[in-house]
Amino acid sequence: MSQMNRRRALQLLAALGTTGLAAGCGPDSDGAGDEPGSAVKIGLIAPGTGPNKPIGDEITNGFELFLALNDQRLGGHPVTLVQADEGDSAKSAQTAADRLLKEGVVALTGVVGSTAMSGIRDMVEQARVPLIGSNASPASLQSVVYIWRTSYVLDEPGQALGDYLRQTLKAGDRLMIVAPEGQGSLDVIAGFRRGYEVGGVRLTDAPIITTNSASPSKGDFAPYIRRALNRKPTAIFCHYAGKPAVAFIKQLYDEGYQGRIYAPGFLTEGSVLGDLESETSTIEKYGIETALNYSADLNNTANRVFASAYRKTYNSSPTTYAMASYDAAQVLDKALRIAGPNPNPQQVNLALGQIGQIDSPRGAWQFNQPRTPQQKWYLRRVQKDGQLLSNVVISELATLG
Q: What CATH class does 6-152+297-367 carry?
């Protein structure tokens, strides 16, 4: 996906008006670094093919949008964005990272899959080139010096929902957990337990672990769903995204489930709700609630600028994936300005620890000691906004990180 050119950026800014211009270019007006810096290369690792390509597109869009709103510059430096296909394995991610490092990038960003992130960890640390990861964030990724994340830690949405459900479910309610095999599910479930099992409250039923297929066929989840429904749950907590999320929700209703669904927000993010239009009446009747660090309807200045620009440019609402990548560009904008006119990767990494608070579409946040965001988590309910199903923020759940 090619970068938006200067003409497109100017057209976008004109469409947004002076408020968009001021907010979009705000980082360049903080009094630092008015003189132009040297040109820099930023490497973006994202899936260009395979089941994670839609998320890869969102990540690319978010980063390119920030560049378009800031004259293709970060921290006063003209930027060349060099992209590499993450693929769907640790090996393909390592190949992508190796190519970008040989290109002489001053920083890396992106990375969708947890396997990819774990696979390139040692390469990044040994190369001493900062990586501002904008999606993958396994809980096991600890004690790193050059890896920062603008997304979340994968156990956090589960923890936020666990605390909420512990206070919401009534005595006698039965909760079942259903999730695909893999480390991501283990992180989510561990976080959920940490939030839920407080003050003597315990989960009595073991989680039901399903197969993990990127493109499940009709009926693939049915045997697992029947096992769960045999236990007569009043609520189900699950962890799916993309096509598996659509298939799981449809098959859950097909098997006769008549209760509320709770999940990390990935369950209904991206194109999922568009694919569930046929289930609108059932969803409205029984309810789906999710926890996420972002929703496109958040009412703050940064989000009004970001969401409006995103819709005008890509003709769709932004997701948490696009937002986190947009913020990765914001983070680099601040760090490159601090690092000075001729930055090297080590100077940029040092500057990342000095950037302070980010005025983000999700709400203000800042890096904590493990180099992940300290941020708010929101409870979102799937309901109609006009004629379309949307993720509507109901309340704040917690601040974690």
A: alpha beta
